[in-house]
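User: My advisor, Dr. K., asked me to get a structural model of this assembly before our group meeting. I'm new to this, so sorry if the format is off. These are the inputs:
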Amino acid sequence: MKTILYIIQKEFKQIFRNKGMLPIIFIMPILQLVILSNAATFEVKNIKFGYIDNDHTSTSRALVERFDASTYFNVLTDFPSEALASAAMLNGEVDVLLHIPTHFERDLQKEKYNNLGVTINAIDGAAAGVENVYVTQIVQRFNQNLKIDLFQISDQQIQPTSIQTIPLFWYNETLNYKTFMVPGILVLLVTMITLFLSGMNIVREKEIGTLEQINVTPIKKRQFIIGKLFPFWVIGMGLLTVGLVLAKVVFNIPMVGSLPLMYLYTSIYILVVLGIGLFISNFTETQQQAMFISWFFTVIFILMSGLFTPIESMPNWAQIITEFNPIRYFVEVMRMVMLKGSGFMDILPQLSKTLLYALVMDGLAVWSYKKTS
Amino acid sequence: MSNDHVIKVEGLTKMFGDFTAVNAITFEVEKGEIFGFLGANGAGKTTAMKMLIGISTPTSGKANVAGFDVFTNAEDIKKNIGYMSQKFALYDDLTVKENITFFGGIYGLSRKEIKEKSAVLIEELELEKAANKLVGSLPLGWKQKLSFSVSLLHDPKIVFLDEPTGGVDPITRRQFWEMIYKAANQGTTVFVTTHYMDEAEYCDRVSIMVNGTIEALDTPKKLKERFKTDTMNDVFLKLARG
Amino acid sequence: MKRFIGFIKKEYYHIFRDKRSLFILFGMPIAQIMLFGFAITNEINNVDIAILDHSKDVDTKEIIHKISASKYFSIDQLIEKESDIETIFKKGKVKAVLNFEKDFGKNLIKDGEATIQIITDATDPNTANTISNYVNAILAQYQKELNKDVTIAYQITPRTRMVYNPELKSVYMFVPGVMTIILMLVSAMMTSISITREKELGTMEILLVSPLKPFQVIVGKVFPYIFLSIINAVVIVLLSIFIFKMPVQGSLFLLALESILFIISALALGILISTISATQQTAMMISLMGLMLPVILLSGFIFPISSMPLPLQLISNIIPAKWFIIIIKGIMLKGVGFQFIWKETLILVGMTVFFIGLSVKKYKIRLE
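Assistant: The format is fine. Below is the predicted structure of the whole assembly, which you can bring to the meeting.
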């Protein structure tokens, strides 16, 4: 036990003495949490909208007016020709184009029916889908008022049967994206910092030659690994704390659930990450290799974590892969406990899988540390 | 094993794939002697030493260090030996005192012992002014002396030195050998590799390794007589050129 | 020149002898493209929902049937009381509950109006909103069937044409992003690490006192990575063409030139990082921690830049990846020529010159 304390003391001194690293460990994650949480949103707004009005009647102007009034669209220009409009589309100046045909109003009055051309830049397929919904909604609402406002025809239709829907958004009534992203990004930052630091740690001592000096001492493998784990564990818990405070103070994220439960889970989770990091560190020869491997797994883990895109939409085989992704569990638990107030029993599956993972990874870290080659 | 032999090696071999780095070497080192382990670069000195200090498992053969077998009891050997590698291996980003405390700590010394020992050590090395400076900022000679002293912190039975005087000036080398003598006088066995042939003259006995095998082993005086030369340098040249 | 070639050879040996790093270097883009192509989508499907049916009549059964037939939803369970909603949401699996009012069918016939609550777990606002929209769409369809006989006067129907990606495949959106993020991180990270590594091991001094000019030393170190990055870019483009049938509408030659430009600007950024960091550890942390999240989040790779708050939209302009993503999308999907992307190209050139200039300046200060 005493031996472990000496290692911990040494590691802390080395971390706090490295002036180049301190801002990267403590300031950069905080800045990123504060800034980048604002960036991660799938909301579609400020849509770059243009139109070609070949009709120039009160009806066509009224229709454009509707788009102008909508908060989703930034109405840009009335393009005088199709050629100019499609050039603007190629340029990326416009993402949604409305083509109002000639004799639009006249045909509508005559036929009671007309088509409207809409072109959407669909490279971002999800956004294009949403844009299409917005366009359709605006046109439908325009339809409903058309007869009353424009043609002064009184409503003599039979009232159709209708199903009313009342959407209720629990836990996040205003659909605030930050409520969703801040806990997730906090998870990422805690994971990345602890993984990269531990991943580079032992291999760094290998490269500068001090590990050999340690290997000729009678220190036990498990003492060494625990001594290495602990300082990074403290840093991870510290980051979590700072992150939670920021989440509350800066973003006003609701914290419904139990803080001790969050800390309990995180304390186990960080052990998983550190185990992976030290395992990588033991298994590689240079810091460059270690970083590369950590980077590879981080990217895959992030993408497969459900942080940005929903896991349940993935095909089955991919969902099975995510079962082995520790970040997935951390993201789930943070969101469940923080935002919904899930209790111990609710997160028990995640908690027990993480605990098992921690035992395996930390075991591997001790096993892979070879004092003798 | 006789009580006088703190290192006993028989047919010790290390292969890396097809390459035999150390080929069935056999020798004994007596308690309290300064044993010089000589050889050209690449002759297998460092590999042999790493097997003796328990950080490299031999391919075959037998070796017993400080009463323990290198195959089965490597960790017990480590309690009883000190080691100074040819690459400086203290922490550059810790101070002199912190390095002493750390290594004392992992060898299981008590706080009190560490305090006493570091006071003595710092005084002997005349490092009082530098005690709280980062080791990385010290000149190489001081670093080497410090790392030798650190390897002796836990009063090991044997200390292994891998080219301890590489790259330091003649005055520091002289001081370094004085430290070695002092340790030997206090009963510590010193196992030292070097390729400075003048240093070989300071050893009680030397062995000369060529291409993984020990070609000669005796006192410097007897070796010079046997090869009819005046210096160890010539002994070495005769052997190395085969 | 001979010396210089010898030096480049040395760098090649360094890289190609390290099998593990090579494996990652080339495995990474393949793994990412595959994941994005086959596994990751920001669409929703098969979302687990629960039903709370207080009415249990013909209409509710029909609606439930329609919902469960849709590919978007799968019905996980039927619950009996309101208080169950909280419990199942807390477990996390079920994302929405449809709550049919009492006497749903009766009300529909008697008053011509009945109510369903769509209760969603909005911790993920995007999914919640999409679920709500899809349920509404299914109900609207059902309503239309109920109202078959009622005709509505005056109807404008939008005829939407989805251009550049008619099938709305999310892989079209992700390929340019993956390519950018890989080229950026590989180039910037690898160069910054390999240069600081020589500094740390002390071999940089040896190189600098050699007859090679400092400029040659840096170019020599960076050159192999240009080559590696180009291979990566080629692999990504080939995968996207042959596996995901993604078109390259524009000129391949232009795409190649622009990619090389972007690689060089990422390498220049890597050199800059190496001049400001003393150890490999610092260089890695700057290039990983400093670049990874901003490149993923602020480049328009996953999240649309135009929806971000204005200050972030401004910040996104200094991310080279943003401009490259616009360029690739332009060439590959829209098929534009140089006249449409010269602005973005110029910005990348400007950034590259800036990074190199700053590195040279920092480097000189260090040597003095």
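One thing worth pointing out at the meeting: Chain C has 15 helices and five strands.

User: Perfect, thanks a lot.
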